[in-house]
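Morning, I've got a small favour to ask if you have a moment. I've been staring at a protein lately and its backbone has me curious. You're getting the sequence in one-letter code plus the fold written as tokens. I've dropped the whole record in just underneath, so have a look:
=====
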Amino acid sequence: MVKVRYATADDLDQFYGQERPTLSVRGVVADRDGEILGVIGLAYQDNEMQAFSSMKEDMRQYPMTIMRAVSKFKTILKRYGSNVLAIANPDEKHSDKLLESVGFQFVEDIAEGRLYQWQTQ
């Protein structure tokens, strides 16, 4: 069974290792018996609030869990976000659709991908 719960620092260490966001983070994880399959959240970096997400390939077999994680992320976004940026992953075919479903609006194409913005609603 995969549980959706708020992320801890240990969860982020397990999932990202050395590459984990290092500043203030609020997030949600999908936890399958102690293995973190996916993370979605907000990180405060470079004086900006940035949305991030990542998942292991195994997470794709749990689409309802993905939607529960996104729903829980929305509560974080509404509580802590005011002006949040996100970059759609060009290698993830549903990235733009997911951002738009949460309320992000397309801003422009940049070198890293498609830039989106969410503002307090």
Observations:
- The longest helix spans residues 63-80.
- The CA atoms of residues 103 and 118 lie 6 Å apart.
- DSSP finds three helices and seven strands in the chain.
- The chain has a mean pLDDT of 90.
